[in-house]
UniProtKB/TrEMBL annotation:
Residues 135-199 form the S1 motif domain. GO terms for cellular component: cytosol. Residues 420-431 have a biased composition (Basic and acidic residues). Participates in both transcription termination and antitermination. GO terms for molecular function: DNA-binding transcription factor activity; RNA binding. One of its GO terms (biological process) is DNA-templated transcription termination. This is Transcription termination/antitermination protein NusA. It comes from the Bacteria.
Length: 431
């Protein structure tokens, strides 16, 4: 090895982006494998490459012991102290054993080790690069399609666009340039695997960041996004600067900014609404383009009950419930939509139910108070009515009192000396 060799390593570092130190460590490991291939696999050796000159040396390493069991990896304390008196048991004795040349097989082994280490270093660098870009947008070129999977060339690595991450109705042709969202980066035995998506809501956010400078510099915040890929999307934007209209900034002059995003998403419709910290106002904005009359928020159930004009009901719900569904995803609230006539009918029914419930409670209270009158013995109908508001009555006691009165012809109770009126109408007092 010489200075030319170090120059080659520097060129390789620039081309592959792999550190020169990693390459030198790979070559040292390769030389160790080559030496063991030629001069015995059980020997313990160390290879050192001079970083300035490129010269390499091989050192045999032997453990110092009292009694030698294997001379290939051990040396006696007596022999070691002949070289250096300071050696002790369990120290390591190193001696240079640099060969003049390696055999053909050993050289081939070294080459394989170097190539393998370089490949592993490349994979590690690619994994680190793309794992840090998870949640970012990338541009790639379609390479091939296999079993509905689309493989996209990202330069250093080939990304996978699975069928579940492809937009409905979108076709991919060889050499097409597309933008995609990095969902996940996996480390596999064949190198890093990059999974990308064309349906993720994050792709919508990143595209607006590219097209709208106000979002990129932080003047406008993209608070939330909901998406049904290939059909329709909604985004909520907000600006702390009162002089900046967040919706207008995203739309752009003559709609140029939003149109660029729509073109990239193959004609997907995009609703841009203004975010509001008040949930009621935010829900009303999210149902755009429908106009909202009232919004009632129920915090405990996380439900928003919305009333819209009769002619706006179908617009608020959308085709197959799409508008309401996207608004619910955007706001995080369950949305119950009713027209004004439906809300009025429901209110009338609720009021009628409350009136009936109140009347039922009043009747129930009257019957209870009337029954309470029979808790004590009574003499006549007037006494029963007098107690009707105070005491509780057991029906069995009333019947016994009535029977006693009915059996008395003279107007005197057999079980009591107290007279009772003969004309007392007990039927009126019974419940």
């Amino acid at each position: 090895m010489n200075v030319e060799f170090l120059g080659a390593l520097q060129d390789l570092e620039r081309e592959k982006g792999i550190s020169k130190e990693i390459l030198l460590e790979a070559i040292e490991a390769a030389l160790i494998s080559a030496y063991k291939k030629n001069f015995g696999s059980l020997q313990n050796v160390r290879v050192h490459i001079d970083r300035a000159t490129g010269e390499f040396k091989v050192y045999s390493r032997k453990a110092i012991v009292e009694q030698v069991a294997d001379p290939r990896i051990e040396v006696s304390l007596t022999e070691a102290q002949k070289i250096n008196p300071n050696y002790q048991v369990d120290d390591v004795l190193e001696s240079e054993v640099t060969p003049r040349e390696f055999g053909r097989i050993a050289a081939q082994t070294a080459k394989q080790v170097v190539v393998q280490r370089i490949r592993e270093a490349e994979r590690g660098m690619i994994y680190e690069e793309f794992s840090n870009r998870e949640g970012d947008i990338v541009t790639g070129i379609v390479q091939r399609m296999e079993n509905k999977n689309v493989y996209v060339d990202l330069g250093k690595v080939e990304a996978l666009l699975a069928p579940s991450e492809q937009m409905n109705g979108e076709t991919y042709r060889y050499s097409d340039r597309i933008k995609a969202y990095i969902v996940e980066v996996k480390k596999t035995t064949k190198g890093p695997q990059v999974l990308i998506s064309r349906t993720h809501p994050g792709l919508l956010k990143r595209l607006f960041e590219l097209e709208v400078p106000e979002i990129h510099d932080g003047t406008v915040e993209l608070k939330a996004a909901s998406r049904e890929a290939g059909a329709r999307s909604k985004i909520a934007v907000y600006s702390k600067d009162e002089n900046v209209d967040p919706v207008g900034a995203c739309v752009g002059p003559k709609g140029m900014r939003v149109q660029a995003v729509v073109n990239e998403l193959k004609g997907e419709k995009i609703d841009i609404v203004k975010w509001n910290p008040d949930p009621a106002k935010f829900v009303a904005n999210a149902l755009s383009p429908a106009k909202v009359v009232t919004v009632d928020i129920y915090e405990d159930d996380k439900v928003a009950r919305v009333v819209v004009p009769d002619y706006q009901l179908s617009l608020a719900i959308g085709k197959e419930g799409q508008n309401a569904r996207l608004a619910a995803k955007l706001t995080g609230w369950k949305i119950d939509i009713k027209s004004e006539s439906q809300a009025k009918t429901a209110q009338i029914a609720a009021d009628s139910y409350e009136e009936y419930d109140e009347e039922y409670e009043q009747d129930y209270d009257y019957e209870d108070s009337y029954d309470e009158a029979y808790d004590d013995e009574f003499v006549d109908e007037n006494d029963a009515e007098a107690y009707a508001d105070d005491e509780y009555y057991d029906e069995t006691d009333a019947e016994d009192a009535y029977d006693d009165y009915d059996d008395s012809d003279s107007g005197t109770d057999e079980s009591s000396d107290s007279p009772k009126p003969a004309d007392a109408d007990m039927n009126k007092s019974r419940p």
